[in-house]
Specification:
The protein is an alpha/beta fold. It is built from 5 helices and 19 strands. The strands form 4 sheets. Strands 3, 4, 5, 8, 11, 13, 15 and 17 form an 8-stranded mixed beta sheet that branches. Strands 7-10-12-14-16-19-18 form a 7-stranded mixed beta sheet. The chain has a two-stranded antiparallel ribbon with strand order 1-2. A hairpin with a 2-residue loop joins strand 3 and strand 4.
């Protein structure tokens, strides 16, 4: 770890050539292609008024032996991540400042997980970041996953209108799912659809986006039958989800 004045640079920040100004760290116009990295970790921020910004950059065909993590408060602006290989899923806090972040990946690549890292009741920057999300609603593309085919996908707590996704491969959940009488339909708590909805309660969120199962998925027959039942009884909610 390298020290810049009163701020410390991590391994990833050194790789990106981060420049420091007061409480801000910035990297712009970075292109890293076909490299092997120990990790890709941005954050956590050292103090509530600190800033870490990576903008107008491309990261393609990286082999990362460790973790891929982007913490709350970190700014990613106009970024492309393509064909990333890492130890586990690519994990990003839903309270990172995301603007036009594009993920491209094939079926052999890792999954993408965007969800809360912190407890909103104890995070000193949660309120500020929540207001940031409200300000960006209906005005920006935060994340683009139209060309992402990774093994798993979970995006929790981002405004649906700010995420570009493929409705033939992805589906979204909102609070309307509260209307569904799961037990009356004989849909168990272990059901794919019910488990997907439980994430909203777990993270106190109002929206989520997931990857649709395929005919080759585990329990695909049961998933398909339950979807048919849900589409029949709740057409307004499930109309946009294609049959398996």
């Amino acid at each position: 770890m390298k020290e810049l004045n009163h701020l410390m640079l991590t391994y990833t920040e050194e790789i990106l050539g981060i420049a420091e100004h007061h409480t801000s760290k910035c990297a712009d116009n970075i292109r890293i292609i076909k490299e092997e990295l120990e990790e890709f970790v941005l954050g956590p921020l050292e103090r509530p008024d600190a800033h870490l910004v990576v903008a107008n950059s491309e990261f393609r065909q990286l082999s990362i032996s460790g973790s891929f993590l982007v913490y709350e408060g970190v700014t990613l602006d106009n970024i492309v991540f393509e064909d990333i290989s890492c130890f586990d899923m690519m994990q990003i806090s839903n309270l990172a400042r995301l603007s036009n972040v594009r993920f491209i990946g094939n079926k052999r690549g890792p999954g993408l997980l965007i969800r809360p890292f912190c407890d909103p009741n104890t995070s000193p920057i949660f309120s500020e970041l929540f207001q940031y999300h409200l300000a960006h609603a209906k005005s920006k593309c935060m994340v683009d996953i139209t060309d992402f085919y990774g093994k798993d996908l979970e995006i929790i707590g981002l405004p649906i209108e700010n995420v570009r996704f493929d409705p033939t491969r992805h589906f979204h959940i909102d609070l309307r799912w509260n209307e569904i009488p799961w037990d009356n339909y004989g849909i168990k708590k272990s059901s794919f659809w019910r488990l997907s909805f439980c994430a909203l309660d777990s993270f106190n969120a109002s929206t989520a986006i997931y990857k649709l199962p395929t005919k080759r998925s585990r329990n695909s027959k049961q998933i398909s039958e339950e979807l048919s039942l849900l589409k029949k009884n709740h057409p307004a909610i499930f109309r946009e989800i294609p049959a398996l």
